Structure formats: structure tokens, C-alpha cells
Amino acid sequence: MTQPLRVGLVQQSCGTDLDANQRASEAGIRDAAARGARLVLLQELHRSVYFCQHESTDLFDLAEPIPGPSTQWLGALAKELNVVIVGSLFEKRATGLYHNTAVVMESDGTLAGIYRKMHIPDDPGYYEKFYFTPGDAEGRGFTPIATSVGKLGLLVCWDQWYPEAARLMALAGADLLLYPTAIGWNPADPPEERGRQRDAWVTIQRAHAVANGLPVLVANRVGFESDPTGQWPGSQFWGHSFVAGPQGEIVVAAGEEAEVVVVDVDLERSENVRRWWPFLRDRRIDAYGDLTRRFRD
């Protein structure tokens, strides 16, 4: 019988001090590894504040190449601690070409692979289309990344709302779905609206677990981050990082403060769940052609 995989989620707040952010991430990784985690997931864009609340060409200075300083740092940590680490970077692919990119560092310190965020939002307080080019086949598309702990179906934040993305990762053999995330409330929203938003966020990702018979790992940031331009009230990132099992059951969940959560995930359950609920077998792939259309008139 395969041993459960112990995973860790690092949920942290971020500020304008990049070194302090890195120290917090490293402390979280070390904490998770000391508690036996073999796979550690960081939140989206953990190196800096969530800078997409406004548009400024100066902020492209935050971007870095891959490989580069962050992959070197994460790789050294992965090798030292003998863990697989998933990080999230603002990638400078070329002059004028930037991506929101997740990286997977193998436990020997090497770069196992990258995933460039495919769905890019453009909403008040989330002006990502100004900064990020959508991923493509060269950014691995919806292809799992093979590691010593399994095939990781890596997706990023806004990708988490799209069942097609999760399904394609499952069809390509992912053992787990992972979502580094940066999502929060508008402070002006009333409590009932905040509850609806967070519940929808949890529900859609639990549904991906159910529909694909796979564990889902989600790491979100916490803390209030203001918009320096004053055009937007800022974002109160709600945290609530969680792990769901292959039937959508919540295995562990964090609160709304900085926290490192560690839990065992039984990957063998996916095999049994898919035998009980053979959704992949019963798909009517002959009837789904219109899914490639924007809309059916």
C-alpha cells in the first residue's frame, strides 16, 4: 500500500519589503518540512504585494527570468529539506513579454517544470491583463508536471474557476490539482456578500475534486493590501487555504491569519473513488464539440 503523501500549505501576508516576504515564505517552508511535508505549496505571487490592483509600467521591474534568483533560492531550499516546492513568480520571459508563472522545484533542487497561468482576469483591483500574457503550449498548457511525489496538475488562481482546466489536467494524468491563489474581498462589501464569494470559491474547487476524483490543494494569501493610487479600496485577502479529498471532503482548512497547515493526503483513494464514480468512463466526448465555441446561439 502506498504511504499517504504529507503536504504543506504556506499562507502568509506580504508587504513591500521583498526580503521580508522571502523570509516569511522560507520560514513557512521550513516549518512544513519539519512537520514531515514532502510537498509544499506557496501562494500566488508570494514574493511581493499583489501589485495588480493598479497599472504601472514601473512594476514590471518586479519580474525575473526563469531560471533566476527565485528558482535558485527555492531550489536550494528544496534540496536542503528534501521536499518538492511549488512557487509562484512574475516571470520576465523576454523584453515586453511577462507571465504569471508557477514553478516546481524537485527535491534534488532542479527545476521540474513550469506552468504559465492560462486564464487572466481584468476586473477592478485585479488588472492582470496589463501585466501578464496568457500561457500557451510552451508554458506547458494543461500538462501535469512529473515529480518524485506524483504528477502535479498545477493551475493558478483565476484558473480555479474553470472546470475545463481541471478536467484537462485530470485527463493528462494528474495525481493532484494545486492552486496557488491571491483572492480577497473589497473591504466595502457587506458581510453577506463576502460570505457568498468565499463559499463560491471553496465550492467550485471542491467540485473539481469531485468531478475528477482528485485531491485539491489551495494556498491563498492573507492580510489587507491597499491600492497606492487610491482608485480602489484595496483587498482584504481572505486566506482559508485548504486541502480537499477526491470526493470534495475538506481534509484541512486554514483561517484568515498567516498559517502553515500540514496534512496527509491518501492518493490511493483516487483509484477507489474513480471506480465507484466512473465519471471519466461515462463522459459523452462525442457530444461535447461545442465546448470549443465561445457561445452557442
Q: Can I get a quick summary?
A:
By secondary structure, this protein is of the alpha+beta class.
Write up this protein.
With 297 residues, this protein is an alpha+beta fold. The protein has one domain: Carbon-nitrogen hydrolase (Nitrilase/N-carbamoyl-D-aminoacid amidohydrolase). Helix content is 24%, strand content 28%. It has five helices and 17 strands. The strands form four sheets. It has a six-stranded mixed sheet. Strands 8-9-10-12-15-16 form a six-stranded mixed sheet, with helices on one face. A three-stranded antiparallel sheet has the order 11-14-13, covered by helices on one side. Helix 3 packs parallel to helix 4. It is globular. It starts with a strand and ends in a 21-residue tail after the last helix. It comes from Sinimarinibacterium flocculans. This is N-carbamoylputrescine amidase. GO terms for molecular function: N-carbamoylputrescine amidase activity.
**Do you know the CATH topology?**
Nitrilase/N-carbamoyl-D-aminoacid amidohydrolase
Just name the CATH architecture.
4-Layer Sandwich
Helix fraction by DSSP (H/I, runs of at least 4): 10-25%
- Which structural class matches the secondary elements? alpha+beta
Query: Whole-Å distance between the termini?
Result: 51 Å
Number of strands: 17
CATH class wording: Alpha Beta
What is the global morphology? globular
- Show unreliable segments: none
Order of helices and strands: EHEHEEEEEEEHEEHEEEEEEH
* Continuous helix count: 5
Count of the domains = 1
**DSSP strand content:** 25-35%
**Sheet bearing the most strands, described?**
6 strands, mixed
* Radius of gyration based on Cα positions: 18 Å
